Amino acid sequence: MVGLKTHYSRTKSKMKAVEMFLTKFPRRVFRFTPEKLWLNGNDMIEGNYIDTRTELNLEELKKLLK
User: Fold this and answer.
1) Is the pLDDT of residue 1 over 70?
2) 7, 30, 40, 61: least surrounded by Cβ within 10 Å?
3) Residue-range domain boundaries for the chain
4) Residues with Cβ < 8 Å from 23, sequence gap 6 or more?
5) 9 sits in which H/E element
6) With contact defined as beta carbons under 8 Å apart, do 52 and 43 qualify?
């Protein structure tokens, strides 16, 4: 229920009935917990652009967000 309230507090639409997520309706709500976090960037090697990925420390970010 908390997930639905959070989702619908961020949208302009009216909250659907909880039963629509628990029965055979094609509606679902999922919760995910990130295991890794990174920033995408770009760089250049010998005149060619390449994509880069810089991994961030998830534990340090959690401390900063508290």
Assistant:
1) no
2) 30
3) 2-65
4) none
5) helix 2-9
6) yes
